[in-house]
Design a protein that fits this description.
355 residues; alpha/beta; Rossmann fold; six-stranded parallel sheet; binds nicotinamide-adenine-dinucleotide
Length: 355
């Protein structure tokens, strides 16, 4: 079944990636076509018209059109909730950019309207298809890491230009990049969250965070640390994932190769330990874990993966057509927003926020 798309916001993401998927990726979504645009900026409406789309400067008229059945919401983050709700109420399915909303309460409203109208609400967490992340997921799901103990996920370099520098627009590095990194972890581990501690810092930017650390502890004891920096390029591995069977380092974003350290053998060995007291030296028994760690270039099992965010588009269109289940589940998107809310609160109070 064919689908046509209307765009609310036709800037970098709406007029770039989202438009190009519908126009070019017939291999993935053969029946998807761009149709119309609602934009505040005249210059972006002119681009839409040049591309043969219908451009609106009136939201009601745009939403009244029956020329498209899907709306992509790609405005600054402060408009996501209202634009999504109005589009759902107008009978459209919605693909909403990340972060889904300004907070979890807003997202809950959006989800409620999606349920009420029977129209799909998709959150565009496309970085579930980044190759560095997919390699981590593959290592975990094939058992090479064993039970996860700790995850470090780092990214530095998102520049906070334009509306991203303003708090009331939903700016800041936690909303811009942190949300992707947190979503990847929530999707990977599929465990309930126990608590969040965070430092959400404005170091260079006067108004929004540009250096943020969020520590998420899951009920199993697994701890994930997300570090995002908007203005500093301090080299750190993109991922360092520690399991009880293996440790995986992914050096860079967009690089599918990592380094896996796994134990070829491991055994507990009883040793004598000298201890010292007033009476002199005595001997106690000690258990030592002897591991023969091997370092390999990973993946080593033939797993090959290409970066292709359009895989998420395929899932969304297949979901509308009843051929797939929604990949980015509402509960996951809500957990991500709740973690972000908790991170803000923890940073303000200096306290751990329990879930
Ligand atoms: N998933 C990703 O990888 C990814 C990447 C970049 C941006 N994003 C998200 O996409 C969204 C847009 O970011 P961008 O980089 O395209 O920003 P942008 O500034 O390039 O584009 C936003 C556009 O929306 C228009 N706009 C703003 N408010 C509007 C309104 N109320 N009604 C109609 N049009 C409006 C602006 O005129 C602008 O053209 C943000 O939510 C951002 O977080 C996601």
């Amino acid at each position: 079944m064919g689908h046509r798309v209307g765009y609310i916001g036709f800037g970098g993401m709406g007029g770039g990636y989202h438009y190009e998927v519908a126009r070019d990726r017939k291999d993935v979504c053969p029946d998807l076509e761009p149709a119309a645009v609602f934009e505040l900026r005249e210059s972006r409406r002119a681009v839409a018209i040049e591309r043969g789309l219908t451009a609106y400067d009136d939201l009601d008229k745009f939403l009244a059109s029956d020329d498209f059945d899907i709306v992509v919401v790609a405005t600054s983050n402060n408009f996501h909730k209202d634009m999504t709700i109005r589009s759902l109420r107008a009978g459209k399915h919605v693909i909403c950019e990340k972060p889904a909303a300004m907070n979890a309460a807003e997202l809950e409203e959006m989800i409620a309207v999606s349920k009420e109208t029977g129209k799909y609400l998709f959150i565009h967490q496309n970085r579930r298809f980044d190759v560095d992340f997919l390699t981590v997921k593959h290592a975990y799901e094939t058992g090479r890491l064993g039970t996860l103990r700790s995850i470090e996920s780092n990214f530095a370099g998102g520049t906070l230009l334009g509306w991203r520098a303003f708090r009331d627009h939903g700016g800041g590095i936690l909303f811009d990049w942190g949300v992707h990194l947190i979503d990847q972890i929530v999707y990977l581990v599929q465990e309930p969250v126990a608590s969040v501690r965070a430092a959400v810092r404005c170091e260079k930017n006067p108004e929004v965070d540009d250096r943020t650390t969020v520590i998420i502890t899951f009920k199993s004891g697994l701890r994930a640390t997300v570090k995002v920096a908007g203005t500093f390029l301090v080299p750190k591995p993109r991922f360092a994932v520690y399991g009880d069977k293996g440790i995986l380092w992914m050096d860079e974003i967009y690089n599918a190769k990592g380094t896996l350290r796994e134990a070829k053998s491991s055994e507990w060995v009883a040793e004598d330990a000298f201890v010292y007291g007033k009476e002199g030296v005595s001997v106690r028994k000690q258990e030592i874990l002897e591991e023969d760690l091997e370092r390999i270039v990973y993946p080593d099992d033939g797993y090959e993966v290409n970066q292709d965010w359009a895989a998420l588009y395929k899932n969304m269109i297949d979901t509308i057509d009843g051929k797939a289940e929604m990949l980015v589940k509402h509960e996951e998107a809500l957990t991500v927003m709740k973690i972000i809310d908790a991170a803000m609160k923890s940073s303000e109070t200096g306290e751990l926020v329990e879930f």
